[in-house]
Write a structure and sequence with these properties.
Length: about 230
């Protein structure tokens, strides 16, 4: 899929970004998908998953749409699904964390990370050290892109990671894109999240944590295939 050619999708697509990431990371993917929007951050610095979902819903007036949730965006997608199930045509996770019912993002992590992350967030905040950012989200990307990502990284609310999201059940249609070279959401956690999200649509992209930058054409094609699978 090259040259920004528009592919056939069955409904608009709402993109939910991972932690701290600017909306431009989706630009190349959006260029070929037709009607899309990137969910904005809420205004409150103490927002939880429900407030993130409210901000995303308020940004679009589509009666029905597909949600593409990246990383911690999975928690927002859960809250969005609980708030407006009739509007969500399907959810596609992209290296997304999808906690089991009653768990938070931190609670979905393996031991000991699930115990350590809340303490780290309380003491150090939600912006990882620069070295960690470069090794994680920056893996496999050009140096100039990594520099921009680090410079524009926006810390999220701590509550986004430690508040259990509202559970609205599974979406009518679900799928998952696995990133096989991911250092931030490792394969085991991706597999657990994919199983919790449900659905039988699966794709693999040989990228790090940001396939929308490392392989935008591959991710665009996966999204288009998912919407056409309805």
């Amino acid at each position: 899929m090259a040259g920004g050619r528009v592919v056939d999708v069955t409904e608009p697509v709402l993109l939910l970004s991972g932690s701290g990431l600017p909306s431009w990371i989706w630009d190349e993917v959006r260029a070929g998908l037709g009607e899309t929007a990137v969910g904005p951050r809420p205004d409150s610095p103490d927002a939880g998953p429900a407030e993130y979902a409210e901000a995303a819903l308020a940004a679009v007036d589509w009666p029905r749409f597909t949600v593409v949730a990246h990383s911690v965006g999975g928690v927002v997608a859960q809250a969005l699904l609980a708030a407006a199930p009739q509007r969500v045509a399907g959810v596609l996770g992209v290296a997304a964390v999808w906690p089991a019912p009653g768990r938070s993002f931190a609670g979905a992590l393996p031991v000991p990370q699930r115990w350590l992350l809340p303490v780290i967030l309380r003491l150090a905040g939600t912006r990882p050290p620069e070295k960690q950012l470069r090794a994680g989200i920056g893996a496999g990307l050009p140096a100039a892109t990594v520099d921009r990502l680090v410079a524009e990284f926006t810390p999220e609310s701590r509550r986004l990671f430690v508040t259990a999201g509202a559970q609205g059940g599974r979406p009518q249609r679900a799928g998952y894109v696995h990133t096989t070279e991911d250092r931030d959401v490792p394969p085991a956690l991706q597999s657990t999240s994919a199983a919790a999200l449900g659905g039988d649509f699966r794709r693999e992209l040989a990228t790090g944590h940001l396939p929308m930058l490392a392989d935008p054409a591959g991710l665009r094609e996966a999204i288009a295939d998912f919407t056409r699978a309805a």
